[in-house]
Amino acid sequence: MNRRDAICLLGVPAISALGIDQRRWPRAGQRGAGRAPDVDLTLTASPEEVSLLPGAPTRVWRYGAALHRGPASTVSPGPGTYLGPTLRVRRAQRIRVRFRNRLTEPSVVHWHGLDLPEAADGHPRFAIDGGGEYVSEFEMANRAGTYWYHPHPHMRTGAQVYHGLAGVVIVSDDEEDALGLPSGDGELICVLQDRRFDTQNQLVYARTGDVAVSGRGRGMGMGRGMGGDMARMMETVSGWLGDRVLVNGRLRPVVDVARRTYRVRLLNGSNARIYKLAWSDGSPLAVIGSDGGLLERVRRVPMLTLAPAQRADVLLELSDHAPGSEVRLRTLAFPADAAGRIGMMGDMSPLPQGAPIDLMTLRVTSTRGPRVRLPERLCDPPAVWQLKADAPVRRVPLTFMRMQWLLAGRTFDMLDVRPDETVAAGSTHVWELRNDPNPMGMALAHPIHLHGPQFRVLSRSGGGANALREGIVDTPAADTVLVLPGETVRIQVTFSRHQGLYLYHCHILEHEDMGMMRNLRIT
Ligand code: C2O
Ligand code: CU
Ligand code: CU
Whose CA is nearest to atom 3 of ligand 1? Predict the structure, then answer.
């Protein structure tokens, strides 16, 4: 046992019901061993009360951070109410995170989009009980971009994220610095999350635990008349939607902005809602980056489909806007069926998928700031973006059977991993994600996410006319890809150099918690 194993073990005070074998921490990698971390911080998840709506405060769970070592800019307050602190790190920094769980249930932190050693990735088998603590260490290998962190405990990811546990990680590097992108006040972080509240301003969430049990063998086609529990179950199987959309934990915020260029970092942190984003003044979204950082060139699009867990980096030019004018970020209307349907009633939630909403208002003041003009070429394409014609192809059907969502015909098991889910470190594969409707014609859109590397979206075929497709920007730097009903999406992925047990899953968090997730072993 080396030193870092020892640190990890000391950090785990109790053995959960899963048994000790499943919780054995893997051997730490050799890289950087012994070197003092550049950044050392404690991340704590604890209950809190925040004011979200007029009236009573809302009970939430929230991440907090304390920086022990590293640049003071590493930790800054989250962009709003309940969100965790924003963490700013540089590529190649060595980072130590001590996670403290002050909840009354197990939790573990996942670093979404980051390519990390197994012990730091946040697999549910490493969840620690309330009161517990563990330490992980890793080197930041990712390109500059917008990533995020959120819990990943077994069957409770949806509930914990919904109650507030999420934060943004911003990675910077020399290549991006050279572009002179807007920074400081010129950067806006927008985390989009929908929530449902009761009359006391408390969050209302599904009971995913009930679904797996009550769902079995009941058959389909139940409607509103079947009682609240059944309606709630159907909503959960679809993915839990709120009746209000918050931006940075605030309802329709109004933000004063200067006459300058802005860099807007968008994160869809919702459990299940898909947005079709547009600016109210009709100007295109100038997309400069996606999940995995900068694109080679700016992509100007009239609208942008952002599925749960996806990020987009967008430039907004306000230099020529008149003081007093407003630009709103909105999600455009689309038919709820574009996100698919299960059950005869379709979307039964109070605010269905595709409801048009003004999300946030930017109010232009008379203050002036720098205008940023971008070069034609934003970055040198990394080698992993290159097409590999001889990559082996794996078919991964996304299916729905007996009220269960399946990946490659299987449901999640804590340790089970099959030969087709085992790949060599650094090898390149093509995965064909196929979203065929079941025999009753039912299918939903699934944002499929791989832990670890960013992948390249190669192609998208099949599926009928779909109002969400026109907003989809497929890139070579994605960690989450939306597969619409009837579609087959091919991705090319070069797996991590780190070995161990990782995950791939649907990022509709209720689907993930219900088992639309599988292990992936890197050997
Ligand atoms: Cu953001 Cu395993 O997910
Ligand atoms: Cu992830
Ligand atoms: Cu799904």
Answer: 112
